[in-house]
Structures are given as C-alpha cells and as structure tokens.
Design goal:
With 193 residues, this protein is an alpha+beta fold. The chain has three helices and eight strands.
Length: 193
C-alpha cells in the first residue's frame, strides 16, 4: 500500500511538472529576453551584438527560437561598421533535456548572412573575438547536431586591401552522435562554382 502511494505521488508530481513546463512554453514571450541575449552575446564576442528584428518562439517538444536582423560590430580600426549581419537565425533545442537544465541543440539555421573579414596592415584582424588573454577557461559552444547556412556572402579583405568574395548558396553540416560527420555545400569561391 505504501509503495503504491509513493508511485502515485511521484506520477502526480511528474504530471504537474510537465503541465507547468508546457504552460510556460505556451505563454512565455521571447521578446522579454532581448536585452539579456544582446548583453550576453556582446560580452561573449567582446563587441556590440544587436538584434534589430523580431524574436519569436515556435512552440513544440522541439522548440525553436527565431531571431531576425542581427549584427556583430567591428573593432574601431576596421573599415566597415559590422563584422557580420544575419537576416534570420533559428535555434531548435530538445525540450525534455532543457527542462533538466541540459542544453541539447538539435538544429541551427542561418539565412541571409554577410560576413566582412578584414586583416589590417599591422597584422590585426577582425575575426578574433574577446580578450584572448583574459580567461584561462576554454569557452566552447554546445554540441550542434545539424547546421544549415543559406544565402551567405563572405568578403575577405587582406592587408594589401585586395578583396575576395565567397558565396554559399546552401551548406549543411551534420554532427549526429553515433554517425559520421557530413558536410554538403554549394556556392561560388572567387567566381568559380
């Protein structure tokens, strides 16, 4: 009898937890996190990160947050205002591990990307972020199972001011546990498909 009560109490507790999690997912407004997202990304990059467009949440057991019109600033010496501009970023995560405090990124999608890579005459560049000597702790991103990049243009300006242009029509990368990593891409490098 006592064992049955423990099981019943545990089942009811899990059911209440699941209902609260689903209700939170249904009613959370992702735009309230705009300031936090910008501040954390700015701190991580060591440069201004800005979200100019809407933030939305696709609600499901695999929720996806979609952020539009983002940019990362350049160092003061660089010729352009932005290091990169992205029209749309979508990040899909697994809900159940997230409720346990684990971040499992299932899919990341970038659409409409422009990257401006520059190298200065003094050997400086705009693609190393933050203060590399400030922290001894290695920083890394969570494991990402799938990555999709669509409509991307990468400009590279060397120290002698020559500019190369690379276009990515679509690139897919898979890093699924237990399977070999795969990359499929289509685009143009220096005018050659």
């Amino acid at each position: 009898m006592r064992f049955t009560k423990v099981i019943l109490t545990l089942f009811i507790g899990l059911l209440v937890f699941a209902v609260v999690a689903v209700l939170a997912l249904l009613f959370v407004d992702p735009t309230v996190f705009r300031g936090q997202l910008e501040a954390r990304a700015t701190a991580a990059f060591g440069r201004q990160f800005q979200i100019d467009g809407p933030i939305s949440l696709e609600r499901s057991l695999r929720p996806r947050i979609v952020i539009e019109d983002t940019s990362i600033g350049n160092p003061v010496w660089a010729s352009g205002e932005h290091f990169t501009k992205v029209q749309k970023i979508g990040v899909q995560v697994a809900l159940l591990p997230l409720l346990r405090g684990e971040l499992t990124v299932l899919d990341v999608q970038f659409t409409g990307v422009e990257v401006f890579i520059e190298e200065g005459p003094d050997g400086s560049n705009n693609y190393i972020f933050g203060d590399s000597g400030a922290s001894k702790e290695p920083r890394g991103l969570p494991s990402i199972e799938q990555l999709l990049i669509r409509d991307a243009i990468i400009y590279h300006q060397s120290a002698d001011a020559s500019i190369s242009r690379y276009e990515i029509t679509e690139a897919r990368l898979w890093n699924i546990p237990g399977e070999p990593e795969r990359i499929e891409a289509e685009g143009i490098a220096k005018g050659t498909p």
